């Protein structure tokens, strides 16, 4: 198995951990990237992009990263705040008037972005095509009644985060661009980031094939029915969603799901987060003031959906709540199956890890954790 790329001498422990992921932890295909003070110090890839035909993972490989997409969407929304187009403490209805129904008139943008809106699933019957078409889902959410009093508790809005925050972005943006278009035109193109929310068809051959988890999670949750909130959230909307081969299809890649279907690489995620805590090639995406506001703890404690502790700022997961090895002041997002991306303002580290072998370990993913530990060992004096 060949590992390619670049690693600065002082960050060779990351190369060792990345190699061990393949040798000892059964990694299939993956990439890891690290920036330090706006400069790349690690950019590694290896393994198979497609285990069914032996296609290797290359420098150009892209992969779907599930909820690591939420962090990218959060950057977009926070940039709109920085530009003066969006107020986190204002009601969502100030930019999206149709949202002010069935007890949602006072839900703030901050509450929506920190999973406090009480809309963790979409009510109603939808075809998969309707679920990927945007308008049917955002219209349903605008009509829907919260299942808890907004602001009193929080629960992971697994997919609805993307439609709610994506529609807020579209309404607040003076040009009314979708989240995917706003992302490309305001951030990604300027920084040369290979990451897409709504993948162009021409890039499809570059996408790695996901390896579904060994256990069918939807089947495991199905017996609980509506008695378990997670079961209802997991397959919503329409009962169509599962971590299976559906995510290897063109319709799932082409749609804009700003919570769930971002497709890119570790290099791009690390570069994005580096630009949020400093300059990258002379460009900074978020100011220090914007980051301070975005990382203010908005919701922390027991999560009503995933039933573990979680902690959120303005769209970002915070600290060790999304990675046991993360530094306490990290902000970013993890993705189902194992992907992870974050920034650490205290050290100037920005980190991205992506892979195609989906795993769900309730105690954490040792692949990303060992990589993060190696990053911070590399910063120790005399390492």
Q: How does the major sheet shape up? A: 8 strands, antiparallel
The ordered string of helix (H) and strand (E) elements is: EHEEEEHHHHHHEHHHEHHEEEEEEH
- Binned, the helix content reads 25-40%
**How many strand elements?**
13
What general outline do the C-alpha atoms trace? globular
CATH superfamily placement: DD-peptidase/beta-lactamase superfamily
The structure class reads: alpha+beta
Radius of gyration: 19 Å
Average pLDDT confidence is 95
Low-confidence stretches: none
Strand content: 15-25%
Query: How many helices?
Result: 13
Q: How many angstroms separate the termini?
A: 27 Å
The CATH topology turns out to be: Beta-lactamase
Domains (count):
1
Highest CATH level, the class: Alpha Beta
Q: Can you tell me the CATH architecture?
A: 3-Layer(aba) Sandwich
């Amino acid at each position: 198995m060949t590992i390619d790329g670049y690693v600065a001498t002082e960050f060779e422990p990351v190369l060792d951990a990345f190699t061990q992921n393949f040798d000892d932890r059964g990694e299939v295909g993956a990439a890891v990237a690290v920036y330090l003070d706006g400069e790349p110090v690690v950019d590694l890839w290896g393994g198979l992009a497609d285990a069914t035909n032996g296609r290797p993972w290359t420098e150009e490989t892209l992969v779907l990263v599930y909820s690591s997409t939420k962090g990218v969407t959060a950057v977009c929304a926070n940039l709109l705040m920085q530009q003066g187009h969006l107020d986190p403490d204002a009601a969502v209805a100030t930019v999206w008037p149709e949202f002010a129904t069935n007890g949602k008139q006072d839900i703030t943008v901050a509450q929506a972005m920190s999973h406090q809106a009480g809309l963790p699933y979409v009510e109603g019957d939808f075809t998969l095509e309707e679920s990927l078409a945007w308008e049917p889902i955002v219209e349903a959410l605008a009509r829907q009644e919260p299942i808890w009093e907004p602001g009193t508790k929080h629960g992971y809005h697994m997919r609805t985060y993307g439609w709610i925050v994506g529609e807020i972005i579209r309404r607040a943006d003076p040009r009314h661009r979708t989240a995917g278009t706003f992302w490309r035109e305001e951030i990604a193109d300027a920084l040369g980031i290979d990451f897409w929310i709504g993948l162009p068809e021409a890039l499809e051959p570059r996408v790695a094939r996901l390896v579904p988890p060994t256990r069918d999670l939807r089947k495991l949750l199905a017996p609980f029915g509506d008695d378990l909130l997670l079961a209802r959230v997991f397959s919503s909307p329409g009962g169509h969603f599962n971590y299976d081969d559906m995510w290897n299809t063109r319709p799932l890649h082409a749609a804009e799901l700003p919570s769930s279907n971002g497709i890119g690489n570790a290099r791009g995620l690390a570069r994005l987060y580096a630009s949020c805590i400093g300059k990258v090639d002379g460009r900074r995406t978020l100011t220090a003031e914007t980051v301070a506001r975005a990382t203010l703890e908005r919701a922390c404690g027991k999560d009503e959906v995933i039933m573990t502790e979680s902690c959120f700022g303005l769209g970002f997961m915070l600290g060790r709540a999304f990675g046991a090895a993360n530094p306490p002041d990290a902000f970013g997002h993890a993705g189902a199956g194992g992907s992870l991306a974050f920034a650490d303002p205290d050290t100037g580290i920005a980190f991205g890890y992506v892979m195609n072998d989906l795993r769900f370990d309730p105690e954490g993913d040792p692949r990303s954790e060992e990589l993060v530990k190696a990053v911070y060992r590399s910063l120790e004096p005399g390492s």
